């Protein structure tokens, strides 16, 4: 690893707060999600007309 690299491996380790699984709320278009991962998953299906 070079000195200018940041590794994000686990939420509870150094720099883990940068992980998409970190328990920090994210607001997107006035909707609040518990994690960035939850937002990512929602975006995968939110505009798919085949998903109820």
Describe this structure in words.
By secondary structure, this protein is of the alpha+beta class. It has a domain at 23-52. The chain is built from 1 helix and 2 strands. The protein has one helix at residues 36-45; strands at 26-28, 31-33. The protein has a two-stranded antiparallel sheet. Strand 1 and strand 2 (31-33) form a beta hairpin. The longest helix has 10 residues, at 36-45. The mean pLDDT is 86.
List the helices and strands and how they pair.
Blueprint: E1 26-28, E2 31-33, H1 36-45
Antiparallel strand pairs: 1-2
Per DSSP, what share of the residues sits in E-state strands of 2 or more residues?
5-15%
- If strands are numbered along the chain, what order do they take across the biggest sheet? 1-2
Largest sheet entry = 2 strands, antiparallel
Helix count equals 1
Shape: elongated
Mean pLDDT across the residues is 86
Which range best describes the helical content: under 10%, 10-25%, 25-40%, 40-55%, 55-70% or over 70%? Answer: 10-25%
Q: Which segments are poorly predicted (pLDDT under 50) over 5 or more consecutive residues?
A: none
C-alpha termini separation: 45 Å
The SSE string, one letter per element, is EEH
Question: Any idea what the radius of gyration is?
Answer: 14 Å
Class from helix and strand fractions: alpha+beta
Give structural attributes.
two-stranded antiparallel ribbon, single chain, 52 residues, elongated, alpha+beta
């Amino acid at each position: 690893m070079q000195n200018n690299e940041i590794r994000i491996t686990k939420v509870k380790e150094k720099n883990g707060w940068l992980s998409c699984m970190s328990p920090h709320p994210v607001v997107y278009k006035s909707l609040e999600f518990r994690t960035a991962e939850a937002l990512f998953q929602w975006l995968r299906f939110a505009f798919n007309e085949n998903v109820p």
